[in-house]
Amino acid sequence: MEQPLLETTQDHHESRGEALEALSSSSSLAKRWEVLVMGEMKKVSYIAMPMVVTTVSQYMLRVISMMMIGHLGELSLSGASIATSLTNVTGFSLLFGMSSALETLCGQAYGAERYQMLGIYTYGAIISLLLVCIPISILWIFTEKLLLLIGEDPLISHEAGNYSIWLIPNLFPYAILQLLNRFLLAQSLIYPMLLSSVAAFVFHVLISWMLVFKFDLGSAGAALGIGLSYWLNVILLGIYVKYASSCEKTRISFSKDVFPSIREFFRLGIPSAIMICLEWWSYELVILLSGLLPNAQLETSVLSICFVVSSLYYFIPYSFGAAASTRVSNELGAGHPEAARLAAWVAAFLAVIAGVTASAILFSCRSILGYAFGEEKELVDYVKDMVPLLALSVMMDCLAALFSGVARGVGWQRLGAYVNLGAFFVCGIPMACVLAFVFHWRGKGLWTGLTTASLLQGLMLMMITLFTDWKKQAREARQRTIESRSQLTVE
């Protein structure tokens, strides 16, 4: 079985701290620094590279289903597209955001060698998110009526309402899957996540094709296929967590401390959700605003293409952000402030390199990118004009995603929520509206506003990281895991 990358014995923690303290006094300062930096690069890369495959595999489940629905007809695709956008905003983004609280709680507990707390936090989080799924499910039942209320086409509303109802069973495995991912991520157990995600993706392609086309279930079959694939992923990870020797100390089990941990989870989970949802919602809002532009069909299509492409590229910096979150939270929990600082800046360096490389590849493909989504010359030319701006936004996303990961590792979710509120809704969205509707930059104006928001988000979080008192953060992390505000009684 796979063993965690990070050694967790007390000897390792002591030697790690001593190595960092020796930097200030050793005559071989440069050599020691090089050894530490290279070692940190390996640890960050070990987490980030498999995470790219893991996150893309999980994201592609819904993309594959949308592709299959597209072959059923324009009405089915329109209804599913609207339902997907609405369910993302009101459900999936909320669960994804709240689950990020475990990056702080489990990551710092693991670094502090409070291994039993990982299982307790995760069990409490599962109970919490399953309860959150209930009101979301009720809301989705009334999707058709909500769309009719805002003046949407009745046929499209009916199709979207049906698809949303069939998506309800997906909420519960999705919530559990996100929490299991964070539980394993905190321990640097990446490869079980990678293998289970790839297996679920392969299963999804086969089962969705059968449900949609062989059993003639249409869009309902596509939604059902997503849920079955999520459950398969959950089952595979659940078996690993239950029987793997690498999870022996952190096993998820019920105890009397689970219920107090729920309060601690919500204390970080709510600002985590706000932090992530504000960014997620801003992109959905821009897609809706594009429908108000002249030649709305073309503008909406092009911005949707930009959104799909940027989402796929975003998983690269997001994975480095996840690595930064894990490494920073582990080192703070272990009481190593200098190691946490080093992990943050090494991950930032690697994320910038990845971002520049991704942007260069995207820019070099600007002439052919449009053909992947259609053959109309107007569409292809417009996409070509948007690619330079899109490539720039990919670079900005690298900074934003990376330092958002650092914020989750430290426990700055509340601060991150304020940053995202200011970057996207105080600055980015108003700027996008002015450029698009006042200066008539159309889709370019809308996307420029989003790019500016990402730049501000990244810069603000970077400045916060730059001026952080890491010793203070380490003390707070130790207090959170050992003294524990929720007064857990783990022995």
Automatic annotation (TrEMBL):
It comes from the Eukaryota. It is a multi-pass membrane protein. InterPro entries: MATE_euk, MATE_fam. Coiled coil: none annotated. GO terms for cellular component: membrane. One of its GO terms (biological process) is xenobiotic detoxification by transmembrane export across the plasma membrane. GO terms for molecular function: antiporter activity; xenobiotic transmembrane transporter activity. Keywords: Membrane, Transmembrane, Transmembrane helix. Its main location: membrane. It is found in: Membrane. The chain crosses the membrane at residues 46-69, 75-97, 118-143, 163-180, 189-211, 223-244, 265-282, 302-321, 342-369, 389-410, 417-439, 445-468. Belongs to the multi antimicrobial extrusion (MATE) (TC 2.A.66.1) family. NCBIfam families: matE. This is Protein DETOXIFICATION. It comes from Daucus carota subsp. sativus (Carrot). The lineage of its organism: Eukaryota, Viridiplantae, Streptophyta, Embryophyta, Tracheophyta.
